[in-house]
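It is worth pausing here to work through a concrete case rather than discussing structure prediction in the abstract. The textbook approach is simple: state the sequence, then state the predicted structure, then interpret. We follow exactly that order.
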Amino acid sequence: MALPRLSLSLQFGDIPHAARHRQALPRHTVTRCIRHALALDAEITVRIVGQAEGLTLNQSYRAQDHATNVLTFDYAQSPLVLADLVLCAPVVAQEAKEQGKTLAAHYAHLLVHGTLHAQGWDHETSLADALAMEAQEVTILRGLGMPNPYA
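Step two, the predicted structure:
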């Protein structure tokens, strides 16, 4: 079965250690992770941001006073997924270090996670929804040859 089509814009904001993050996120890898998580064709922008931009967005859109690893802004889910995924580089790097994962593996997980959110998956609505989303992430990542991020 053919994977959904993806029109991808990959952007890097003003981030510390930019070369390290660019190396962990080659365009072909970002495309592969997102396409495997899609059920429909999509137009998605992925923006990698620094702490200040991540904090501002999380405060503005989620009323939370900290930067978070990934924010998903979904604009349409049918017939085409239209979304922005914003990943905060310092948060992702710190989490990868704390969890003993490579930066590339953690980014892959968050790209899949954010792409599922863009299609209506939500882990904050109920325990059943959280478990279903987690299982879907594990399945997708396994298909990409990546380990279970929750193990």
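Step three, interpretation. The helical segments are 18-24, 27-37, 51-62, 89-99, 103-118, 127-143. The longest helix spans residues 127-143.
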